[in-house]
């Protein structure tokens, strides 16, 4: 339209007198001249006709080949697994909150009863012989025995440790949910992916059971071992559907040597340190679990013997001081959540064991095409340790130089 207007103005200016031609020409030059483009409607119409008839050239579309189209049944199974995993995340979160409430409520109740019994024992010590003394003695003894029973149960199940188990389970199930989503989004999932996801779900169910009776994890084992929440690794049947597969699939001799050194550092420093700390936490928890009920029991015996001519003074000391010390021990054990700390150390050691097995499983595979892409795997290891790629290389180089004297931890996260 602008081109037509410009041409009409120029035509009209040529028919005017010469005295006005100069001014009109100046005005005509101020109008932008739009050149015709090379746009052709004929080509567009032909393309639309080809698309309508189904004869559109194949190079203009991005259709998938039959080999890359995912099996609908495989996708349905993966989505079913995602729903089950999401449900488990909610279950473990809810039960974790419930067992954390157990820890708070039981600790408050036990300490309240214990201190009330100690107070009554002190009052009974100042009372004269007779009915008031007998009533106070009986009430204090019964309260101590009730607190003792509750404390034995609490020490047996370790609510703070149970809550930490459920928190770890919720986090790991959430991580598995994301892995399944990634498997669906990248590449074409296969039946082996379904089997692998199913094995991971069952392994997590076994590592972090929901019921208490019959399946609860041992709270006072003879030895602290790393937590294991992953299934036994199988030989890779095919390469994952992502990562570059050109050449050596991202692997080389330097990368293999680097990862071997990282495994040695994690095994010698990180995992060993958390197992050592776990042993200390276990010994402390055992001592506190014995001391609390023992002091409560002695306090109950002391209140029962109050008023006796031969044991009067010692009975008062046991009844009052024993109850006070029992409250302090209970507060330190369950208020400080020693069981939770033990489970945290065990879980951290399991994390480093998981990394060791992941790296060693890739290094044991002779065919590099069956491994996970080397560059991608190196990045994952670095991120899990809270390091950059250059820092990961520096860690391996330092381990090679210093040998057995190398004491730096591999992880910077915890």
The pLDDT mean sits at 83
Query: For the terminal residues, how far apart are their CA atoms?
Result: 70 Å
Query: Structural class from helices and strands?
Result: mainly alpha
Specify the helix fraction band: over 70%
Q: How many distinct domains?
A: 2
**SSE order:** HHHHHHHHHHHH
Low-confidence stretches: 1-45, 54-66, 237-246
- Tell me the major beta sheet: none
- Using only C-alpha atoms, the radius of gyration works out to 38 Å
Tally of helical segments: 12
Number of strands: 0
User: What percentage of the residues does DSSP assign to strands (E)?
Assistant: under 5%
Coarse shape:
elongated
Protein name: F-box protein
InterPro entries: Chloroplast_duf (IPR027949)
Give a written overview of the molecule.
- By secondary structure, this protein is mostly helical.
- It folds into two domains: 2-58, no CATH class; 74-211 and 248-405, no CATH class.
- The chain is 70% helix and 0% strand.
- The chain is built from twelve helices and no strands.
- α6 (159-185) runs parallel beside α10.
- It is elongated and about 90 Å long.
- InterPro entries: Chloroplast_duf.
- It holds the Pfam family Chloroplast_duf.
- This is F-box protein.
